[in-house]
């Protein structure tokens, strides 16, 4: 169902790799709500993914940009304003990657070159995106910037590895940069903390199937899907949430406030 919540709004969406990507679902929903946008991803992802198909569905143009490269980001922002015909109203940062996770390096046995690369891609890139937008004065007043995080930033999930640290960094950047963006440009910055979701990045985490089943059993409403996340993001891009900023917003079926659920307890109780 469409409510035209984003009619006339223009944006940039990072991180749509394939149809499972949270950014893909968000792009589809933003399009349905009347928003127009540029799609972007790392040059390597252009070759692996199916972003061309998404561009066709949503009538969007694609600009390749490595989110760790300031030069690529400057080019992206300038070109996006040209394509969209003016300043930007919304930005989705939906980027995450850990080489230690991908290569199966345990948290207690990091390859720090990989750790640094993961931090650059998953967390510092959010600062770089915002600094580029801020310096270019590219955001319209009452614009909205959203990035995605996971609960392992705040509580221990052993197999989330160095991504837990990257997400803690990302969340801090949202608050710190969000202050300046709010004060100087009237732009809001928020983070959505999403349930485990079966995507390329998500499924890379060791024991992901157990992870997702446990979260589902713990959450009174069950896990939030990628589409739920897309819908939540649409509200944050809309004018209905104008003064929500610097927040870490949980889209997790209630997981973050649970101690234990009946469904999880059942597996430990002796029924004899
Ligand atoms: P995904 O694998 O579909 O998306 C990750 C994206 O990051 C890909 O499109 C990839 O090409 C892009 N990327 C990697 N390196 C890049 C670079 N140097 N420059 C630009 N883009 C780059 O997976 P998903 O799950 O949709 O991930 C989106 C966001 O959601 C990530 O921040 C992830 O950590 C977060 N998240 C995911 C959860 C899950 O369980 N899937 C749970 C909570 C948060």
Instruction: Provide the helix percentage.
Output: 40-55%
Structural class: alpha/beta
Tell me the strand percentage band: 15-25%
Helix count, per DSSP?
A: 11
Q: Based on the structure given, which CATH architecture is correct?
A: 3-Layer(aba) Sandwich
CATH class: Alpha Beta
Helix and strand succession? EHEHHEHEHHEHEHHHEH
Look at the structure and name the CATH superfamily: NAD(P)-binding Rossmann-like Domain
Low-confidence stretches: none
Radius of gyration: 18 Å
| Largest pleated sheet | 7 strands, parallel
What's the CATH topology name? Rossmann fold
Quote the distance from N terminus to C terminus: 49 Å
Which shape, going by the Cα principal axes? globular
The overall pLDDT average reads 96
Number of strands: 7
Active site: 150 (proton acceptor), 160 (proton acceptor)
Pfam families: adh_short_C2 (PF13561)
InterPro entries: Enoyl-ACP_Rdtase_NADH, NAD(P)-bd_dom_sf, SDR_fam
EC number: 1.3.1.9
Topology record:
Blueprint: E1 10-14, H1 22-32, E2 36-41, H2 43-48, H3 51-58, E3 61-64, H4 70-84, E4 88-93, H5 99-102, H6 112-135, E5 139-149, H7 162-185, E6 188-194, H8 200-203, H9 208-218, H10 226-237, E7 248-251, H11 262-265
Parallel strand pairs: 1-2, 1-4, 2-3, 4-5, 5-6, 6-7
The structure holds 1,4-dihydronicotinamide adenine dinucleotide.
Residues 14-15, 17, 21-23, 41-42, 45, 66-68, 94-97, 121, 148-150, 194, 196-197, 199-202 line the site of 1,4-dihydronicotinamide adenine dinucleotide (NAI).
Structure description:
- The chain has a single domain, classed as Rossmann fold.
- The longest helix is centred in the middle third of the chain and has 24 residues.
- The protein has 272 residues and is of the alpha/beta class.
- It is 45% helix and 16% strand.
- A seven-stranded parallel sheet has the order 3-2-1-4-5-6-7, with helices on both faces.
- It is built from eleven helices and seven strands.
- Bound molecules: 1,4-dihydronicotinamide adenine dinucleotide.
- The site of 1,4-dihydronicotinamide adenine dinucleotide has 27 residues, from helix 1, strand 5 and helix 8.
């Amino acid at each position: 169902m469409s409510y035209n919540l984003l009619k006339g709004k223009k944006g940039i969406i990072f991180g749509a790799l394939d149809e499972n990507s949270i950014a893909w679902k968000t792009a589809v929903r933003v399009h349905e709500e009347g928003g127009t946008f540029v799609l972007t991803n790392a040059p390597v992802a252009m070759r692996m993914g199916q972003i061309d198909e998404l561009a066709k569905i949503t009538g969007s143009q694609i600009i390749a940009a490595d989110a760790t490269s300031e030069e690529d980001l400057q080019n992206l922002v300038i070109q996006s304003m040209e394509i969209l015909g003016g300043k930007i109203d919304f930005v989705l940062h939906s980027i995450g990657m850990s080489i230690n996770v991908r290569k199966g390096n345990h948290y207690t046995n990091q390859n720090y070159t990989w750790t640094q690369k993961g931090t650059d891609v998953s967390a510092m890139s959010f600062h770089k995106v915002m600094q580029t937008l801020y310096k270019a004065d590219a955001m319209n007043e009452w614009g909205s910037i959203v990035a995605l995080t996971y609960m392992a930033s705040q509580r221990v999930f052993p197999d989330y590895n160095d991504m837990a640290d990257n997400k803690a960094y990302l969340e801090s950047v949202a608050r710190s940069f969000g202050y300046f963006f709010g004060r100087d440009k009237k732009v809001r910055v928020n983070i959505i903390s999403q349930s485990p979701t079966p995507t390329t990045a998500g499924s890379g985490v060791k024991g992901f199937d157990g992870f997702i089943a446990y979260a589902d059993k713990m959450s009174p409403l069950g896990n939030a899907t990628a589409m739920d996340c897309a819908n939540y993001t649409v509200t944050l891009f809309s004018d209905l949430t104008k003064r929500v900023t610097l927040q870490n917003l949980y889209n997790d079926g209630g997981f973050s406030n649970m101690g234990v659920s009946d469904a999880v307890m059942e597996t430990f109780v002796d029924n004899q």
